[in-house]
Amino acid sequence: MIKISAENIKNAQKMLEIAPKEVTNAALAAINTAATTVNAQASKSIRERYTVKAKAVKKHVKKYRANKSNLTAKIIGTSDRLLITHFEVKRNKKGPVKVRVLKGGSLKSVPGMFFGTTKRGFTGALKRIGKARYPLDVPHGPSIPSMFGNGDVMRKLTAVADETLNKRFEYEISCRFNKIWREE
């Protein structure tokens, strides 16, 4: 949960008596700015811990902006498990295919994994199920929601959201009320 500091609340209450619409508009702008900042930081924070590619993360992290009737913004990670090829994969001419999902971890060999093409036309990392040639399985890694929900990632994002929301709310309030006081 992200919180606005007590000092900002006191300032907002004073200003709420003067111009209630301006405080709501300031809160709306601050929330949406914080959501945009967290959305950008989400990809960076996930990629600090996992070897996933930025394109895969950005494609599956969605931002829902706040509006005047609902002062709530959401950042949601959506996807099933990602294909293993979205992570660091090393293929050798001889020997097993190696994969690294976590940064700082070592490359792990995956017995039976190879690169090929399925009957349906998918080209990428594959693994046989059993000893027969078919059926083939497409290996997967973790999903974006599970990476997004990791404790380290969430702590970083919550800290960024708190800081951005408080600074931006204070800035938006001061800008709006400086404008009102100049007009009077």
Report on this model:
- This protein has 184 residues and is an alpha+beta fold.
- 48% of the residues lie in helices and 21% in strands.
- The protein has helices at 6-18, 20-49, 54-60, 144-148, 151-183, and strands at 61-64, 74-77, 81-83, 88-90, 97-100, 108-110, 113-117, 123-128, 136-137, 140-143.
- The strands form four sheets. The chain has a three-stranded antiparallel β-sheet with strand order 4-5-6, with no helix packed on it. The chain has a three-stranded antiparallel β-sheet with strand order 7-8-9, with no helix packed on it. A two-stranded antiparallel sheet has the order 1-2.
- A hairpin with a 5-residue loop joins strand 7 (113-117) and strand 8 (123-128).
- Helix 1 packs antiparallel against helix 2.
- The protein is elongated and about 80 Å long.
- The model has no long low-confidence stretch (mean pLDDT 87).
Using brief descriptors, characterize the structure shown.
184 residues; alpha+beta; three-stranded antiparallel β-sheet; 10 strands; 48% helix
Describe how the helices and strands are arranged.
Blueprint: H1 6-18, H2 20-49, H3 54-60, E1 61-64, E2 74-77, E3 81-83, E4 88-90, E5 97-100, E6 108-110, E7 113-117, E8 123-128, E9 136-137, E10 140-143, H4 144-148, H5 151-183
Antiparallel strand pairs: 1-2, 3-10, 4-5, 5-6, 7-8, 8-9
Helix pairs in contact: 1-2, 1-5, 2-5
